[in-house]
Amino acid sequence: MMLSKGLKRKREEEREKEALAVDSWWLDPSLPAVAQAPPAVASSSLLDLSVLKLHHSLRQSEPDLRHLVLVVNTLRRIQASMAPEPTLPPVPSPPAAPCVADNLLASSDAALSASMASLLEDLSHIEGLSQAPQPLVDEGPPGRPTGGSPPNLGALDLLGPATGCLLDDELEGLFEDIDTSMYDSELWAPASEGLKPGPEDGPGKEEALELDEAELDYLLDVLVGTQALERPPGPGR
Amino acid sequence: MERELETRLRAWMEGRAESRWLEKCQWELAEPHPETTQLESVRADIISTVEFNHTGELLATGDKGGRVVIFQREPESKNAPHSQGEYDVYSTFQSHEPEFDYLKSLEIEEKINKIKWLPQQNAAHSLLSTNDKTIKLWKITERDKRPEGYNLKDEEGKLKDLSTVTSLQVPVLKPMDLMVEVSPRRVFANGHTYHINSISVNSDCETYMSADDLRINLWHLAITDRSFNIVDIKPANMEDLTEVITASEFHPHHCNLFVYSSSKGSLRLCDMRAAALCDKHSKLFEEPEDPSNRSFFSEIISSVSDVKFSHSGRYMLTRDYLTVKVWDLNMEARPIETYQVHDYLRSKLCSLYENDCIFDKFECAWNGSDSVIMTGAYNNFFRMFDRNTKRDVTLEASRESSKPRAVLKPRRVCVGGKRRRDDISVDSLDFTKKILHTAWHPAENIIAIAATNNLYIFQDKVNSEMH
To answer: How far apart (Å, rounded) are the C-alpha atoms in residues B53 and B120?
Structure first.
């Protein structure tokens, strides 16, 4: 982990701790759980773990490029295996996004689509947390669509507005080809529109989407590859 | 804070012959250094690189606090033949300081990423040390005499009043306590936008290269204000970036050849005679992905963390997360040998991804005759593989588990099923104790192991006595 020094960064770290306090226990090396390499935590999934890693990595003033590239490629692999089409469009176009989401949710694989919904929820939860410490949440960074129908959330929006200003322009580009359209479902609306620093069980939570442990276990199995993957990872390599 | 490097543990290994030396692995620990104290582990003290010089007489370590510590091998004494091979602190100096890049508004860590010794040209020794951005050339010289009796200067070096000089004398050199002086000779700055991961001195002894995540630069050792970019894999759009350079090294004999490894598990051999910019490799060494082991982590675990040419120049050694591989320069399709370092972690990759251990960069090393290879693992374990007998051994660099003069036993990690006494289970491995940096003496069976903030030096008893 590339921990840094200096006033400016210290402040960021604090904010980060605040922002990720609930879900970032594995980022804290002082916790014994990290040292012991705990078994996969059932409530977490590889996908949102990767997104969180990305998020954390990008908050460094100078990200570890190797770490970043490996996480991004892993994310691509995961997405490629989840996407309904064998090939992933390199850059998602705004009109296509809702269709992809629909396809995903209408997928015949009930378990996977339910899991996806859970992932979406987790992700909106992450965003909610990341926005919590922002003093001016209503304004948002320039260029961010506000209000109206669910905005087309680009990768950076997904990562939260807090990162935008810290990013090297070049690095932002890294994620443009990651298809985040699957997150463009209505599930986003409460969290992204309201931009509320909602608590963990905020308005985005819907009981119908909650999964029992067996389904999560199944998802984790799929994610770590112990079960046969539906299709080989495409663009990740 | 006094570093724990003073803790030197010596081990003697019984072995009959070079080719069979892994068959009998009995490590005996000598008495620890009297100054040994249990000190709190401090981040700045964590050793970040270990490197022997070309004769093996000197050993340099760099740490996260930007310091370089040089150890010197004690000359053999007739009274105590066993003392030969002991390394004592020779010099310590601050190589890099934390800096702040005001243009980019970011801190530059002082951590020493790599140290490389230059071939010795005269009485002085020279080494290159680098942090993320800046490479420095240091000169290490000894002084054990000082001139006395100047005519125009007094003992403190101040000019005398000429009217007091009534007679002339011949200055003489008087012996004094040995002083080791370290002085910065060159600073090679502003050559890298990304983090430098490797430096390598060319066999022409005039140039060296430095590699960061996306580019490799070629420098002349005497010129600091310009370098030549010899590899650039930075895509026009960073969104197309899928691969980074992870390590790079010059061929030991052919000054035109170098290799670099990537985060996708490939090795590219480049010939500088072909073009000034070696974007097109001469040879690409890559092993196809094993479909049976495919997972989301396939790419991460195949990322090469270190590459080393054999002393002969015929082979290359690479380390990825789970294996160490030997490649023949004449065969690109697959490695000629693959050794499992800790295959029992294959089922734990999800957890290792979660706690970021899967991104750890383990190094690897050849012995002097290219017959044995060594690399680190978790739980303060390190592994050795004998290429001839195909035997391997797991050893532990730890003070806690060993007493002076006690025999250090080979360790075993058990994976389920039967568990012998003294075996350690996979679940009780300590993933915070990792041996990332190791070095092998260029000719003898002496190894240096960096375990967090401790340096361990082990030595093969039989072979050392033959010298």
So the answer is: 9
